[in-house]
Amino acid sequence: MASPTKFSLVLFFACSLFIQGTLAEVICENLPMNMCAFAIASSGKRCVLENNKNARGETSFTCKTSEVVVERLSGYLETDQCVNACGLHREFTGQSSDAFISSEFAAHLCSPACYQNCPNIVDLFLNLAAGEGVSLPSLCQNQKENHRAMLTILSNGSPVGSPLAAPAPASL
């Protein structure tokens, strides 16, 4: 049977490893490529994945610290769940508002799974949209209204809550 002292030492050692891991500093240039996009350094600056071509035309990626500061989320690594819910991928390079052109992207970004649960990604695209003179909340509201209208059209005028309602019987 293990002595209480040995158990206490093992517990102390395990806890100290956990605390060290949670207090680790996030430095963009030290992140693996599959964690760079949508990360925020401990300094509060966004990490950005940049692609470079060498003389042979081969593309390589580097994780860099941008000048964009995020107030509330320093030292944050985005979850795969949010990346997927928002319709993004880890190979996202640069920071561009070009994605707003796609209605498919807007549908992912404005979905409750993304918009309500992924504040880092929403903050990023909120700022990108604002830089282009677009209100992300308005864009999402339009997306929601267009979705409702499409459901109404697809349901042949049936209530929106029942898009699978049985069609009316044909009259003879």
What can you see in these coordinates?
- With 172 residues, the protein is an alpha+beta fold.
- It has one domain.
- The chain is built from 7 helices and 2 strands; from the N terminus they run ααββααααα.
- The protein has a two-stranded antiparallel sheet with strand order 1-2.
- Helix 4 (103-110) crosses helix 7 (136-154).
- It starts with a helix and ends in an 18-residue tail after the last helix.
- Keywords: Signal.
- InterPro entries: PAR1.
Describe the SSE topology.
Blueprint: H1 4-22, H2 33-36, E1 45-53, E2 59-69, H3 80-85, H4 103-110, H5 112-115, H6 119-131, H7 136-154
Antiparallel strand pairs: 1-2
Keywords: Signal
Protein name: PAR1 protein
Organism: Sesamum angolense
Structural class: alpha+beta
The total of helices stands at 7
**Outline, from the CA principal axes?**
globular
Instruction: Calculate the mean pLDDT score and round it.
Output: 77
Secondary-structure element series: HHEEHHHHH
Radius of gyration: 23 Å
Please report which band the strand proportion falls in: under 5%, 5-15%, 15-25%, 25-35%, 35-45% or over 45%. 5-15%
Number of domains: 1
Helical amount: 40-55%
Topology, number of strands: 2
The end-to-end distance, rounded to whole angstroms, is: 86 Å
Poorly predicted ranges: 7-22, 160-172
The main β sheet shows up as: 2 strands, antiparallel
Task: Write out the strand line-up for the largest beta sheet, numbering strands in chain order.
Answer: 1-2
